[in-house]
Design a protein that fits this description.
The protein has 271 residues and is an all-alpha fold. It is built from 13 helices and no strands.
């Protein structure tokens, strides 16, 4: 990574984030995670059929994730945006809190940001199946869009996780209890407040030093799930990737770039 340009660091970070997210998600299909039955039920698929379909869905996810590492295309990235939205939407549709949807903004946000880095979606069909350009150069107008997109995505994923803490999600309380916290409810409230404030700070103005703190926090805090720790951590690659790509993008952006929302200008400089 040291020899790469900042533009390439943003690009490769998002590529890796997409791969991690969908390889991790696919692993849960292979091991047939029981809660997936709830999501299949949303579209009328029964318990037994769901267990037969899980490994197939998981295998496809893993193959698509690997493809982002070895031969990345816009077509796959576009599908990952759609599939990430679909799988995240299944959670509130199955009765889970809406926070579960926005907490997974990295799943569909990372491939969306990758498409923006690679020139957006307005291009000939042939280019959708061509290999992405590893020598990417992000021009100023595109960089502005990348930064703002990553800011919104980062805001959503941190807000969602903070929200789940505030409503005391059972899995998070179990996580804090397993880590030795004597009052997991109080811990969840403190963590939730911190994450929501972090989300707001990124949306308003993403400072580099604070972003680094949030990156370390997110990568570290996701290591302690009570079950399937490795797979859970890998699946959340979209979250780490969005935050890290934003850190690189802010580093490249002209000093004094504006807080959200941006004022429109007639030139390529940010005022």
């Amino acid at each position: 990574m040291l020899r790469l340009t900042t533009d390439q660091k943003i690009y490769f970070t998002l590529r890796l984030a997409c791969a991690m997210c969908f390889i991790g998600h696919g692993a849960f299909g292979i091991i047939t995670k029981p809660i997936w039955c709830n999501y299949f039920a949303v579209v009328g698929i029964g318990h037994d059929a769901a267990y037969h379909l899980m490994p197939i869905v998981g295998s496809v996810d893993i193959l698509l994730g690997i493809s982002m590492l070895v031969y990345p295309t816009r077509a796959v990235a576009g599908w990952l945006v759609i599939w990430g939205l679909v799988t995240a939407t299944m959670r509130p549709l199955s009765g889970e809190p809406f926070a579960e949807f926005i907490e997974r903004a990295g799943n569909f946000g990372a491939p969306l940001a990758l498409l923006i880095v690679q020139g957006g979606i307005k291009m000939p069909l042939k280019q959708w199946f061509a290999r992405m350009n590893d020598q990417v150069v992000i021009e100023s107008p595109v960089l502005k869009t990348v930064v703002n997109s990553l800011r919104v995505i980062a805001f959503l994923l941190l807000l969602g996780h903070g929200w789940l803490n505030l409503i005391q999600k059972a899995g998070l309380l179990k996580q804090y209890q397993s880590l030795g916290f004597h009052d997991p409810v109080k811990t969840a409230l403190i963590v939730g407040g911190f994450e929501i404030l972090s989300a707001l700070s990124i949306l308003i103005r993403p400072f580099q030093n604070l972003l680094l703190v949030f990156i370390i926090w997110k990568i570290g805090s996701e290591l302690f799930y009570p079950h399937y720790e490795l797979f859970e951590w890998v699946e959340r690659g979209g979250s780490y990737g969005v935050l890290l790509a934003l850190w690189f993008a802010v580093k490249k952006a002209p000093s004094g770039f504006p807080a959200f929302p941006l004022r429109k200008t007639n030139n390529l400089q940010w005022n």
